[in-house]
Amino acid sequence: MNFRCSKCDGEEYSVKTTFMAEKTPGLRLELGTYYLKTCSNCGYTEMYSAKILDRDEKLKPEY
Ligand SMILES: [Zn+2]
Predict the structure, then answer these.
(1) Number of structural domains the chain divides into
(2) Three-state DSSP state, 54
(3) Element containing residue 10 per DSSP (H, E)
(4) CA 23–ligand 1 middle distance (angstroms)
(5) Does residue 59 belong to any structural domain of this protein?
(6) Is residue 62 in some structural domain?
(7) What distance in angstroms lies between residue 25's CA and the mean position of ligand 1's atoms?
(8) What's the CA gap between 54 and 41, in Å, rounded?
(9) What's the start-to-end Cα distance of the chain, in Å?
(10) ∠ CA 47-52-58, rounded to 5°
C-alpha cells in the first residue's frame, strides 16, 4: 500500500493498531480493530478499519 500524506506529501509513516468499541446492528458492543497511519513528517493520521481491509484481501474462496 503506497502512502502519500494528504497534508504535506510526505512518504514516511508509521502504523499502529488500535481497538475501538463499536455498536453492531443488534446494539451490542464489539471491539473493532483499526490501523492508524501517522505521517512521520507532520503527524497527520489516517485511520483504516482492519475488518474491511482484511476482508478485501480475502478475494479467493475459502473451504
Ligand atoms: Zn504529512
Answers:
(1) 1
(2) helix
(3) none
(4) 31
(5) no
(6) no
(7) 35
(8) 27
(9) 28
(10) 135
